[in-house]
Amino acid sequence: MAAVSLTVNAKPVSLETEDRTLLVYFLREQLGLTGTHIGCDTGQCGACVVHVDGRAVKSCTMFAVQAAGSDVVTIEGLARDGKLHPVQEAFRENHGLQCGFCTPGMIMTAVDMIRRIPVLDRATIRAELEGNICRCTGYHNIVSSIEDAARRMDAESKGVAA
Amino acid sequence: MIPYPFTYHRAGSLAEAETILKASPEAKLLAGGQTLIAAMKMRLAQPSDLIDISGLKELSFIRAAGDAIVIGAGTRHFEVAISAEVNRLIPALAHLAESIGDPAVRHMGMLGGSLANNDPAADYPAAVLGLDATIRTQRRSIAADDFFTGMFSTALDEGEIVTEVSFPVSARAAYAKFPNPASRYAMAGVFVAKTKSGVRVAVTGAGPCVFRVPEMEAALAADFTPHAIAGIEINAADLNSDIHGSAEYRANLVGVMARRAVAAAQ
Fold first, then answer.
1. A2, pLDDT greater than 90
2. Which of B119, B192, B212, B216 is most buried per CB count within 10 Å?
């Protein structure tokens, strides 16, 4: 057991946890942030993707103690003042989900790829989604959602009305 | 899935990591953890202690050094993939790093961890062997030809830690792999390079350990074209056979991937 201190969704957190506690269990069971999902639990499906120090990682393949001192953002930390993040908004408007189980991981991965890659075409979006699996409908509307979100965020950053 | 209990240590320096490693015979080093943590969750690995060396700045760097690029063992895959230096001097290496796992895995996984683990389907061993790289530890330098000794085994001694890898610059190099359609691990990956010591062909994913193909190397030394190796058959006797593909299938894949790599290296 060790006290782990980190920042989660802009709030400082300090909690005792076992060294073997995976970050995803720490978030879900100790902090009650159940938006981060456990799908395959083997590092393949991406339902557990969160951001650690600004980068998308699989929280099922990282121990909570490794994140000590880090800045963690989960799906719950994206909306600001009751307003959805542009990527969340784009998923809603483009019907980028069916059952919704993979959606938090998809959105966290999408936010990360939009931040890293200046121009996103559909082929690049599909390649970047390699580590996120959707078992409902396939990826067509997910890709459209990310494409739309990237466009909106680009327009916003240039001060143009989306 | 919950791993067996262990004690976590965050090493402040390489020296500190060595000291803890010496004191705990069942300890393991934790780099990016993308293989080790998965194995621990499956309870296939049960280290008494994990010594986290992922935060060591001294292991995280990419620098051009004459006719080589030296990459710290604690450099993450995405850093190699986007490095301007690597893309300029050994684009095949940047491309290989970009093809490992998925973006989230590349944000965590590290060069040194991949090499020390020597998974039969890992990508980096193909680049290290194909480029005739040198692996450096806190004690010595090890040539790529001597480093990979078998499935999940290497020339590393007890307590020996990979610190950096020196990759000779090669502009005529390429990596082609056929990923398993589900796991995306290489069913066969071939790294081809024209190096100072001659043409080298290194194969990962197909056998129990990365290996070279001397017949292809000789043929490519005479004529560096896909056509030159078209007739060379790989002996299936030493290759992996599983539900995803027979040894004969993999032997054929090695030929196809080798020709694609040579074509890409033109």
1. no
2. B192
Q: Quick one: closest CA in B to A18, which residue?
A: B5
B34 contacts A20? CB cut-off 8 A: no
Given a contact cutoff of 8 angstroms between Cβ atoms, the answer to whether B50 and B8 are in contact is yes
- Token pair listed for A44: 């393949």
Residue A161, pLDDT score: 53
Chain B positions in Cβ-Cβ contact with residue A65 (cut-off 8 Å): 8, 10
CATH number, position A54:
3.10.20.30
Confidence band, pLDDT 50/70/90 cuts, at residue A159: confident
Contact list, A29 vs chain B (CB under 8 Å): none
- Between CA A107 and CA A109 the distance in angstroms is 5
| Domain membership of residue A43 as a residue range | 2-77
Residues A106 and A60 in one domain: no
Which residue from A138, A26, A33 is spatially nearest to A78, judged by alpha carbons? A33
Secondary structure letter of residue B239 according to DSSP: S
Contact B52 A66 (CB under 8 A): yes
Considering the entire predicted model, what is its pTM? 0.96
Of A20, A57, A66, the CB nearest to B104: A57
Nearest CA in chain A to B106: A57
What pLDDT is stored for residue A162 in this prediction? 43
CATH 3.40.50.300 fits B7-52, yes or no: no
May I ask the CATH class of domain B60-168? Answer: alpha beta
- Residues A92, A70, single domain; the answer is no
How does pLDDT run across B168-184, given as a tens digit for each residue?
A: 999 899 999 999 988 88
Query: Element (H or E) spanning B203, and its range?
Result: strand B198-204
User: In chain A, which residue's Cα lies nearest the Cα of B10?
Assistant: A66
Q: What's the CATH number for B173-264? A: 3.30.390.50
